[in-house]
Design brief:
The protein has a single domain (about 5-275), classed as NAD(P)-binding Rossmann-like Domain (Rossmann fold). The two termini are about 30 Å apart. The radius of gyration is 18 Å and the shape is globular. The longest helix is centred in the middle third of the chain and has 22 residues, at about 105-125. The protein has helices spanning about 15-25, 35-50, 65-80, 105-125, 160-180, 205-215, 225-235, 260-275; strands at about 5-10, 30-35, 55-60, 85-90, 130-135, 185-195, 245-250, 250-255. Helix 1 packs parallel to helix 2 (about 35-50), helix 3 packs parallel to helix 4 (about 105-125) and helix 4 (about 105-125) packs parallel to helix 5 (about 160-180). The chain has an eight-stranded mixed beta sheet with strand order 3-2-1-4-5-6-7-8, with helices on both faces. The chain is built from eight helices and eight strands. With about 290 residues, it is an alpha/beta fold.
Length: about 290
């Protein structure tokens, strides 16, 4: 088989760049999915220069736009026969309420719904891999989250803390539900918390938050260290048959109680289908 293929979202900086570089070092063909072409080209050239792996492809998508995601999928499908590893890594903070072009609160749209839509649309390519992997970057802050089904777009009482916690929790619930649906297939689904990592996101925080995080920033991990658990889940023999798990760094860990609630998972899946306009059938009879 030719080189394995991986997709990394948010690949031009931070953990995404470190994931892309780490997979390039392991001789994967790396598809870097970025929103900014100039930043993406710079990151791509740096990975080629530092790893010697020239099988690095840059593709562009705005993850808040479902139309843009679908255009990326069309481009990927035209170019690649299969997909071996999908890293759902991209994320963004929004400290005031904004809506996507699809009319969805931006934190939910970018950090969760993009993951739901892209993953489901790439499942046919992942099924063509002997051992497909879906790996999602999440965080411990999900423990403060809940799913606000009554007001998913936070039209009332908007809070970046609440929207952030909701999106993180939704990604973990999605990981578990997808793993259940794919339990009899070749695809493994896991998520990981990279630890406290120095990223560009911290520079975009409101002033007070910047001061607080700045005090602890010297103790944060590098993006390269943060990416290590994701690369481990993608490539190690020990994790080859692991699925439906949450890892805090390298340690398999119990996530919040709510993340295991099957009724919440069912409601979230159905809502996600409604908000993305897709109907998934894979794994329903497994």
């Amino acid at each position: 088989m030719e080189n394995k293929i991986c997709v990394v979202t948010g690949a031009n900086s931070g953990i995404g760049f470190a994931l892309a570089k780490g997979m390039a070092q392991k001789n994967f063909t790396v598809v870097m999915l970025c929103r900014n072409k100039e930043a993406g080209e710079s990151a791509k050239n740096e990975i080629i220069r530092s790893t010697g792996n020239r099988n690095i492809d840059l593709m562009i998508a705005e993850l808040s736009s479902q139309n843009s995601i679908r255009k990326f999928i069309d481009g990927f499908n035209a170019k690649y026969e299969r997909l071996d590893v999908l890293f759902n890594n991209a994320g963004a903070n929004f400290f005031s309420r904004q809506l996507s072009e699809d009319g969805i609160e931006m934190t939910f749209a970018v950090n969760y719904l993009a993951t739901f839509l892209m993953t489901n649309l790439l499942l046919p390519k992942l099924q063509k891999s002997p051992s497909g992997k879906i790996i999602t970057t999440v965080g411990e802050y999900h423990r403060k989250g809940t799913i606000n089904f009554a007001d998913i777009n936070f039209e009332k009482n908007y809070s970046p803390i609440k929207t952030g916690g909701q999106a993180l929790l939704a990604k973990i619930i999605f990981t578990y539900e997808l793993a259940r649906r794919l339990k009899n297939t070749n695809i493994k689904v896991n998520c990981f918390h990279p630890g406290a990592v120095k990223t560009q996101l911290q520079k975009k925080l409101p002033p007070l938050w910047r001061i607080l995080t700045g005090m602890f920033r010297p103790f944060f991990l590098s993006p390269e260290k943060g990416a290590e658990p994701g690369i481990y889940l993608a490539t190690s023999e020990e994790a080859e048959n692991v699925s439906g798990k949450y890892f805090n760094r390298f340690k398999e860990t119990r996530s919040s109680k709510l993340s295991y609630d099957l009724e919440t998972a069912k409601r979230l899946w159905e809502l996600s289908e409604e908000m993305t306009g897709i109907h998934t059938t894979i794994g329903q009879n497994n």
